[in-house]
Amino acid sequence: MREKGLHPKNKFNKGYNFDELIKDNPNLKEFIFNNDYGNLSIDFSNPVAVKELNKALLFSYSKISKWIFSDENLCPPIPGRLDYIHHLSDLLSLEKEIKILDIGTGATCIYPLLGVAEYNWKFVGSDIDLNSLDSAQDIIDDNDLDSNIKLRQQFNEQNILKGILKEDDFFSATMCNPPFYKSAEEAQGANRRKTKNLGNNAVRNFSGNNNELWYLGGEKAFLHNYLYESSLFKNKSKWFTSLVSKKENVVSLEKSSKKLGVIEFKVIPMNQGNKVTRIVCWRF
Q: How far apart are alpha carbons 190 and 196 in whole angstroms?
């Protein structure tokens, strides 16, 4: 299966070699079958199969051999997450020693894992959920990556950078995959729609705890809070970046950025299959 529109440096942009992936994760084998086109594939409505596939993709890196997290947490699609890392690499092409702040690193610690595996970057990952941080720390320990990845807890749900950034911090960039929904009810409604589209057994494929899925005011509120706080810590990072799922949020964010003294604002489009999203980047 070929992934469309991935970054040229993405190792999965020419599709999956299932024979090799089975070597990386033998548990994947039982989920592979020949589809109607005679190609090897998996049932993407089966959350267990999807998780084993993404484990195999991650284990194709020599630095990563264990990736254990609860089924209650979102299983990130590795190719798309990897694209964010490659686009950051392009943005930071002139930087020598790169250190990234990953806001909302989550139980899977996926961006730091990929950043270390691809580029040997240093990371600080933040999260408000202690269980997520415990899970991420276990993954870091399992793969002996403590020298590359450090974790910090956000204790105030109203804050994003406040309480995380320290006096002696300086990052090449911050990155973030913000919550999409305004409330638990909105997230559950989206879950029901996706379940209906994929089949009743797909509900866990859209799992995720509250802080992963929703934020009071939704993506727009989160992004504007993030933008405002970045203006308070403009000397702590060369670039501030975030994924943005809704195109209309980019317009309001750019308008507000001008009022806060942003000197450069850019949008990097990202495509994966039929899904279109973008990375918004700004600096002071």
A: 10
